[in-house]
Design a protein that fits this description.
single chain; 61 residues; mainly alpha; 0% strand; elongated
Length: 61
């Protein structure tokens, strides 16, 4: 699949223009030559902070 075909498919699915899809940096998933990648789910978990402190509960046995 050529990049333009992918842009068109995404634009059709999202209702955006092809130019908007290109501008937002959308592109085919290409393997990084260095073999490294960013796991955005893991980054989000590290950034996640609670709004209120968590109290520990005393265990009753």
């Amino acid at each position: 699949m050529k990049s333009i075909d992918l842009y068109r498919a995404v634009a059709r699915a999202t209702g955006e223009t092809v130019q908007t899809i290109k501008h937002r940096g959308f592109g085919p998933d290409e393997e990084d030559k260095s073999g490294s990648y960013i796991d955005w789910d893991a980054v989000d978990l590290r950034r996640n902070t609670s709004l209120f402190s968590q109290r520990s509960r005393k265990q009753t046995t």
